[in-house]
Amino acid sequence: MNALVLQFGKPWIWSWLAAFVVWFLTIMVTGGAGTLGLSQAALTFAAFSVIVGIGQMFVITLGPGNIDLSVPATMTLAGTVALKLMNVENGMILPGLLLAVLIGLGVGLCNYTLIKALRIPPIIATLSMSFIVQSAAIWTNRGLRIKPPSVLAEFTTTNTLGVPNVAIIAFLISILAWILLEKTIYGRWISAIGQSMPAARMAGIPVDGTRFVTYLFCAVLASISGYLLACFSGGAALNMGAEYLLMSIAVVVIGGTAVAGGDSNVPGIWGASLFMFLVVSMLNTYGLGAGIRLIMTGLIIISVIMLAGGRRGMR
Amino acid sequence: MASSMDDVAKAIIAVDGAKVSFGAVKALDGVTLRVMPGECVGLVGHNGAGKSTIVSVINGGLTPHQGTVTSDGERQERYGINAARDRGVRCVFQELSLCPNLSIVENTRLVHRALGGFGWRSRAAKIIEKSLDAVFPGHGIDSGRTVGDLSIADRQMVEIALAFSDAGTPARLVILDEPTSSLDASLARQMLDHVRRFISGGGSVIFISHILHEILETADRIVVMKDGRVVAERPAHRFDHHGLVEAMGSVAKAETRQRPVREQSAAPVILSHQAAGIPFTARSGEIIGLAGLAGHGQTELLLALHAARSGNWLPQRNPLVTFVAGDRRLNGVFELWSIMRNFSIASLGDMSRRGLVLEAGEKTTATAWKERIEIRTPDLDNRILSLSGGNQQKVLFARALATRAPIVLMDDPMRGVDVGTKQEVYAIIREEAARGRTFIWYSTEMDEVCLCDRVYVFREGRITAELGGDAVDEANIISASFEGTA
Amino acid sequence: MTFRLSSDAIRLVIPALSLSLLLAAVFWLQPRAMSYIGLNLLFNLAVPIALATIAQMLVMAVNDLDLSMGAFVSFVACVTATFLRDAPVIGILILAGAVAAYAAIGVVIHLRDLPSIVVTLGMSFVWGGLAVLLLPAPGGRAPDWVRWLMTVKPPLAPMAIVASIIIAVIAHFIVKRSSLGVLIRGVGGNQRSVERAGWSIVAARATAYALAGLFAVLAGIALVGLTTSADANIALRYTLLSIAGVILGGGEFIGGRVSPIGAVIGALTLTLAGSFLSFLRISPDWQIGAQGAILIIVLALRLMLNRLEKREKRR
Questions:
Q1: What is the average per-residue pLDDT within A232-255?
Q2: Cα dihedral B365, B371, B373, B374 sign
Q3: DSSP class of residue B408?
Q4: Which of A121, A128, A300 is the closest to C296 by Cβ?
Q5: Maximum Cα–Cα distance for chain A, whole Å?
Q6: Is there a contact between A188 and B341 if contact means CB atoms under 8 Å apart?
Q7: Cβ contacts (< 8 Å) between A212 and chain B: which residues?
Q8: How many other C-beta atoms can be found within 10 angstroms of the C-beta atom of residue A130?
Q9: Which residues span the domain enclosing A292?
Q10: Which end of chain A is more exposed for a tag (fewer CB within 10 A), N or C?
């Protein structure tokens, strides 16, 4: 039991601690007013980063060089196409979701096909893929801004028992991810592949199958997140995924997942996502501009990675 | 031996009482070694005896945790790579250590730091060509070529020539770690002749080789190492082949000689593979050895056998083959994990229900195997790296044996494992073979190859000979390794 | 002495071939492009891209990857359009500091054995934030000498081509001919053996990063010379373009196998690809996507060539 606490307890506690400190500093300024609002907003915005971040975390767990850069384009495409299909009709909500998931599956399939067939590093494969997906999104979007179905718009922007609905969905997805990671054979496999791909292959793990499923999973989570985000913000915008490229990687790193692969955790993603949102709102409260916010974010990422240290290089 | 203080004063390099340990493993346990000007010191010992570690101490790559390094009578307090190079210490490493993306000339530039300045290319080309001509007359290697495009033998020749080359600081002590492993007989002859010329010119050489007759005829003095200590040190003419083998401590020798000859030609063929050369077959219950000089295609065959019979896309419930790695760091252990997880990873299918790992079942199985092969640890939840090398290797054996696979592929798994552990593992292998498991075993150690029922000998990527029954002995294997039919 | 094509020369075949093919296609589609002015238009933006590609190549030569290239070039562009024009001394000091920062990143990455991808990702926030602080809205003006330099009309060939050749020659000299270049590529090829020869790997990596910073600074200055003004997001595409350029030019992610001439050719190819697509009347929606497709096709071609080469060797 002791070993368990040491192994899993340590890395994510810091992101939660940081998130709490920032939360506290913010409400100190406002003098306690708007605490509930701040917390709800934090949960809502964190939910989107959590969903995307979990997918990215699974990919990063696969080890050095594994990163999915097509996440933002996938989010945009899924949001755009789903809204177009649903066309403001409440009856089309499920087909819309299904289509979003299908888009995720398609992108994931293409990503891994490129990685495998061209034997190129995932970073380049997902990058080239994201160009194509982004173009597809531009092409379908055509500058039109279709509103989400009213029920869905309502659902994504309201709370149940004071907790934002999107946060509940993100929480359910997190539980699923936690079970996958900690309790299943699949979770062991991705961790093994992340620690050493040759060793995993020699231990009889179906390496390609596992990696393939992981890239699928990441793309599907990105598309679900894009679907929810488009509904939440009242329509899909072409740049809506853009900030999630760096965000998805940042929450994984800050959440205490080893960038070198093999060791990851779900709770840290939540702490890091809350932290990232709260830092922005804190700096806003203190009246600091976008420039300072970006610089702070960058410095935080670098300090976290320096503190966590690189066990093995990922170059 | 003359008075020891005189020796130290004259020696190019003198290491006294060096101790080095990596974690639980004592790589050097108080080694004293002196190299005089104008002598060739032969260094022999089994894998893991500490030869490479003492080499690292002498070339400045490793600072001993205890003990001193003295050079030309001066005690070296801050001895490092650059200090060693300034004193003319050069090294040819066991693994090829040139930059494959650079040309020979550029590699020469890297090795000789003082070579810079305008026109260094032509100077470097002159230096390396002069040295290549001296060591390997008629070599035919163009110094403008990229190293990655050269054959293994050519690369090795370049590396040897680089060590003897002179760009300002002449080489005074050259350490040759298995330099002939990828050279053919005539090239090896050329190199050994050059070593003798170098010695008679006043230079010194530390010569490490598994090929004992090379050591016996080239070295002036032979140092035998075992388990991180020097166990014998005599002038070369007072050793013979037999005495050397004895000094290296092949205790298992007598026992392995009495290997029961098991006749298995009646057992069903479980695996056949069309490799280059003689076709490869394996029968159930057989222990098959892969022999020949290191790096002549044995590992490639094992990898091919594994790749052809394991799934990369879908999980397999009943795999045909399982693999025990020799290079534990590279393709054996999962460093972040506990001993238990390292053990169970290959057989999780048997310890799970609907994809969920049953942790209780995992623990029971792991504990049973821990008892059976005696993994020495207080707690299976400890990190795998807390174990000594030998015990890590046992975990890898347990991992393979716990699977349902009827064939176990072994890629020289006993590297750096102590003698006691080896004997225990040999026993397990014999026991499992008696139950019908097949072992395909690549080993660089003759004793282990001689334990096998049948042996395939490799030469230049091809199987060139098959030995069975009483024909499996050291003399036959060595002669088959060198003749070749290519 | 027998004549033998080195593997470096073979490596240049594909990039050179793709560039000439693309150029031929453009001339065929639009014969008027075959003139001084036409070529100038076609390759107008090539100079900054080529410089950024060389910068990325230097980082890749030591087996790292710089994801902050785009943000950094944008930052330099902002400095150029403000400080370098209004207070040249301060401007030069800022840029020198930026190059020093690059060297420091190299040192940190090496000493702490950190994944370059994450550190430079963090740095991209920092550079982006600094750029926003300098120019919250598009603006500034190019210094006159920069403007003059980028619009000068040399005889025979347009500026973009002359400059590209000069860049290629200088970079070739530094990376392929000088001792420093040998050291940098040696670190990429076999770090241990370089270490054993007594070199300082930290210094080598820091130098590679500093050189990369220098070339990226030049890229930013050149970009402002062409666009006359700057904004904080002006060069975000450069991260991806520079990586793609190196790969198109026959460089590899690991192993220190890079080619400066190839990288410049790769950058020219990417620039030309944009023009080619517009001549093909491909809808602007698909422009980015087509660039992704071109990247994939070239990588596939290279895989085929590598296989052929291996088969030849085996014989």
A1: 85
A2: positive
A3: E
A4: A128
A5: 59
A6: yes
A7: 313
A8: 27
A9: 43-307
A10: N
- Token pair recorded at residue B102: 């650079």
Size of interface A-C (CB pairs under 8 A): 151
Sign for the CA dihedral angle at B178, B182, B186, B190 comes to negative
Structure tokens at A242: 């853009």
Interface probe, candidates A109, A119, A202, A214, chain B, greatest B C-beta count within 10 A: A202
Could you report the predicted ipTM of this complex, rounded to two decimals? 0.87
- The structure's pTM equals 0.83
Inter-chain Cβ pairs, chain A and chain B, closer than 8 A: 88
C283 touches A at CB < 8 Å = yes
Each residue's pLDDT tens digit, C179-217:
999 999 999 988 888 988 889 999 999 999 999 999 999
| Domain map (residue ranges) of chain C | 8-307
Between CA B252 and CA C236 the distance in angstroms is: 67
At A175 the pLDDT is 95
- Binary contact (C130, A295; C-beta < 8 A): yes
Q: What share of chain A is helix, strand, coil (3-state, %, to 5)?
A: 75, 0, 20
Asked if the Cβ–Cβ distance from A127 to C243 is below 8 Å, we say yes
CB distance B450 to B467 below 8 Å: no
Kindly report which listed range (A8-22, B422-436, C148-162) carries the lowest average pLDDT score.
Answer: A8-22
Of A51-55, A85-89, C218-222, give the lowest mean pLDDT range: A85-89
Of A131, A130, A169, nearest in space to A44 by CA: A169
- pLDDT band with cut points at 50, 70 and 90 for residue B227: confident
Span A49-83, pLDDT tens digits: 999 999 999 999 998 778 898 999 999 999 999 98
In contact, B170 and B130? CB cutoff 8 Å: no
Domain assignment present for residue A87? The answer is yes
Residue A140's domain is classified under what CATH number? Answer: 1.10.3470
Residue in B312, B336, B349 closest to A209 by CB: B312
Question: A2 lies in a domain?
Answer: no
pLDDT digits (tens, 9 = 90+) for A178-208: 999 999 999 999 999 999 888 998 888 999 9
CB A210 within 8 A of CB A187: no
Does residue A68 fall inside a structural domain? yes
Q: Of A4, A200, A204, which is closest to B319 when you measure between CB atoms?
A: A204
Q: Please tell me the total count of domains within chain A.
A: 1
3-state secondary structure of B411: strand
What is the CATH number that goes with domain C8-307? 1.10.3470
Instruction: Give the integer Cα–Cα distance in Å for B461 and B444.
Output: 15
Cβ contacts (< 8 Å) between A294 and chain C: which residues?
125-126, 128-129, 132
Q: Is residue A131 part of a domain?
A: yes
Decide the pairing of beta strands B40-44 and B221-226: parallel
Q: How far, CA to CA in Å, does B419 sit from each of B31, B416, B424, B448?
A: 20, 9, 9, 12
Q: Positive or negative, the Cα torsion across B322, B327, B328, B334?
A: negative
A neighbours by CB contacts (3+ pairs under 8 Å): B, C
Is residue B438 pLDDT above 80, yes or no? yes
Q: Is the pLDDT of residue A313 over 60?
A: no
